[in-house]
Structure formats: C-alpha cells, structure tokens
Amino acid sequence: MATSGRAAIFIYPWDITDEGIENCFATLEDTCGLNEVNVAAAYHAGTYFLPHNPKRTIYWGEDGDLYFLPTHQRWQKTRAQPHVSSLVDGPAYMHNIVDEARRRGFGLNFWIVYFFNRDLAVRQPQLAPVNALGHLHGSLLCPGNADAREFALAMTEDLLCTYRADGLFLESLSFGPY
C-alpha cells in the first residue's frame, strides 16, 4: 500500500522483536501502509496488554530502562548510569531494528522518556528532586541536577550518533509535578 508523505506509528521495541523484525516491518508497510517508526528507546514501567504478540500476552515494563546498549563516551561524564532492559539480548538488539527500518526506507525516530525514571531515582536518590516539604520524589530525576542533565545528554547523543535517527520525540524532559 503506497502512502504519500510520512505515515508513522509509535511502537515498543519488544513488539518489533517478539513478532520478528522482518515480519513486523512487513506488516507495518504492507498491511498498515506505514513508512516511519517512532521506537521507544528509553521508557518507564507499565503493564502492557499484547493480544497480538506471539511470545507474551502481558509485558510488565521495567522502570526507566534503555532498550539499547549505552556505548557513547558521553556516559563517562555522569554518575547516573542507566539500567538496560532484560529484553536487550546483546549489542545488536537496537541495531537490528534500525537496520531493517533503513533497509525498507522507513523514517526512524526515537521516543525517549528522560526524567520519569523510578529506577535511577531509587538507586541514586541524590538525582531525585526534593519537594517543599522535604520529601524525596521516588519516581523522577531533577533537571536541576548536573548528573541528571548529563544523563539526558548522554542518552540523546548516544542515540543520535550510534543509530543516526531522523528525529526524536522527547517525553518528561522537565520538572515533574509536585
């Protein structure tokens, strides 16, 4: 099915890999008429109902995980070290998704959740904001913290330099509520 312009979907990497990368892109292109993907590269926890998924009908997403292996030298500038999802089965995990998107001529954007990151807020509480009552926020990183900002820059630079994304969708790149 031919489309004019860009026709995109927001998609999780586990949906792509569980279905089979080539099969998933064939469905997106041939059945759905799409030619661009917005792939979650860093995401927050959630419970995902996946009736179409051949490997699992429920996926409990991990807190603040990366769906790629961090390799860029920028990561050395921050103490805020990310957690990589258990689904990432090696260095080729995201590369395989990117390669198939490029092979088919798809546009490729990354969808990144930045400061809504319970994993880092719990493991490294010095990165979390403290509210006016003195309570530590256990789910957010503080944009005023130099390491949290460097974490965001490292993630962005790694995705842009390593995978040559066409664009980014930025989520939670600000101070949170309360």
Characterise this structure:
The chain is α/β, with parallel strands linked by helices. About 30% of the residues lie in helices and about 20% in strands.
Quick structural overview:
The chain has 178 residues and is an alpha/beta fold.
Which radius of gyration do the C-alpha atoms yield? 17 Å
Show unreliable segments. none
- Give the overall shape, derived from the CA principal axes: globular
Counted beta strands: 8
* Relative helix content: 25-40%
Supply the key terms.
single chain, 178 residues, alpha/beta, six-stranded mixed beta sheet, two-stranded antiparallel sheet, 5 helices, 8 strands, globular
Write the layout of secondary structure elements.
Layout lengths: L7 E4 L1 H7 L1 H11 L4 E8 L2 E4 L8 E4 L3 E2 L16 E2 L7 H12 L3 E7 L4 H6 L22 H18 L3 E5 L7
Parallel strand pairs: 1-2, 2-7, 5-6, 7-8
Antiparallel strand pairs: 2-5, 3-4
